[in-house]
Amino acid sequence: MTTKVTTPGKKSLQTTLEIGKAIRSYYAGVKAAKEEGRPVVWSYGLIPREIFHAADIPVLYLEHLPLMVGAKQLSGNYIQIAEEEGFSRDVCAFHRCFLGCAVAKERDPYLDKFFATPDLIIASNLPCISESKSFLYAVDHYDCPYYFLDAPINTWGKDIPDYAIEYFAGQLKGVIDFMEEHGLKVEIDRLKESISLSKKMIKLWNEIDNCRKAVPTPMGTVDGLTAAYPLIQLPGTQLGVTLFERLLGELKEKVEKKQGVLEDEKLRLMWFGVPPFYNMGLLNYVERYGAVVVKSMVEYIAGGGYDPSILDPEKPLESLAYKALVDIVNPTSKNMVDFIVNAVEDFKVDGLIGVVKRSCGLLPGYMRLAKDAVYNGSGIPTTIFDLDGLDIREYDDVTS
User: Fold this and answer.
1) Which residue, among 250, 191, 184, has the nearest Cα to 12 in the 3D structure?
2) Widest CA span of the chain, in angstroms?
3) Among candidates 359, 316, 284, 387, which has minimal Cα distance to 5?
4) How many Å apart are CA 285 and CA 288, to the nearest integer?
5) How far apart are CA 368 and CA 128, in angstroms?
6) Which of 95, 186, 233, 246 is deepest in the core (most CB within 10 A)?
7) How far apart are CA 195 and CA 291, in angstroms?
8) pLDDT tens-digit profile of 129-149?
9) What are the angstrom distances between the C-alpha of 282 and each of 66, 91, 231, 299, 400?
């Protein structure tokens, strides 16, 4: 239940306010496209977005729409609807929320502004098994064609073998063929251009991160989570590049003037696990004590945690295959733990805040591994809380 101290997060950057507007504009565009008769795709899983942008396809993303619903503290209602349809609380809250939105007989006016029914569903098992099953309920509900994209589980770390890349590139080609069977054409030149823009965007993100490493940091993670939207949903677009160019310019100016989130920064924290999107004010809470959350692991899901040099526009599918398979949430602990250990050093982190997403079968597994690796390597302490990042019914201000 929402309480009087449950609050939205506070942003401090002009560009992240612009990104917020871009998010709303994107979803309004999906709704408008549906009303114009254009086919809408629902995407389940971390399928490379560049493919969709190369075909100018309006897409609703399972991973993002629930965040918007959660931020408005509406997620509990739609999760409850999914449970009434027979889904267990053990199923990912993001999936339950999205499926509740899908089958609700009445939708909140806020959601209704963005919601559009699917003409095609494209799903994957990346990053989790729940991802590979939940979408089937939506397929049955809407009786629409679907394609399942099989991703190899990363047991190799960053050195993905050629046969795995070749296999997944073939799976991505299958997605393109499937879309073309249903009238959605992916032009190879557009896809190459999309890869080039994606490469440029991730280079800008790396420069943005370098600015954030400054002391005091010019950007907290409430702004960071909003700024991650282009990473998750806009790779391969000029809009994503433009937004990051503006953000980089704003941060460079702040670093030059030594302007931080706090005038007197005493403590730097990192958040790993899914934050409570229904109460993002918790990330600002520590600022009253001179601490700032300088980084969040969630910013890197579906992008940001790879070397942009691997993207080759002349090998678009192979590039996208590597980018997806090396993602830090492709089920292996090594890349995730290494990312957290390195971020603690790079961002001069003094302490970690971990959150166990109760309904996730993936993220809680690396919590203790990351905690031990960080402490053994640098002596930095970690505190871990037990809550669900999306299901507001499980949140209690007193115990969280």
Assistant:
1) 250
2) 59
3) 284
4) 6
5) 19
6) 95
7) 38
8) 788 888 999 999 999 999 999
9) 19, 25, 23, 17, 10
**CA 388 from chain center: how many Å?**
16
Can you read off the two tokens belonging to residue 338?
A: 């290494």
Give me the amino acid identity at 98: F
Task: State the residue for tokens 């995730």.
Answer: 336
Separation of alpha carbons 297 and 288, rounded Å: 23
Task: Collapse the DSSP code of 149 into the 3-class scheme (helix H, G, I; strand E, B; otherwise coil) and give the result.
Answer: strand
Whole-angstrom distance, CA of residue 220 vs CA of residue 217? 7
Contact 327, 126 (CB under 8 A): yes
Give the residue from 24, 33, 55, 63 showing the smallest Cα distance to 298. Answer: 63
Q: What is the pLDDT of residues 60-97, one digit of tens each?
A: 998 888 988 998 999 999 999 999 999 999 899 999 99
- Where are the extended beta strands (E) located within the chain? 41-44, 59-61, 120-124, 146-149, 267-272, 291-296, 351-356, 382-386
To which residue do tokens 């677009």 refer?
Answer: 237
Token readout for 376 is: 């053994």
User: Are the CB atoms for 78 and 97 separated by under 8 Å?
Assistant: yes
Structural contact between residues 360 and 329, judged by C-beta atoms closer than 8 angstroms: no
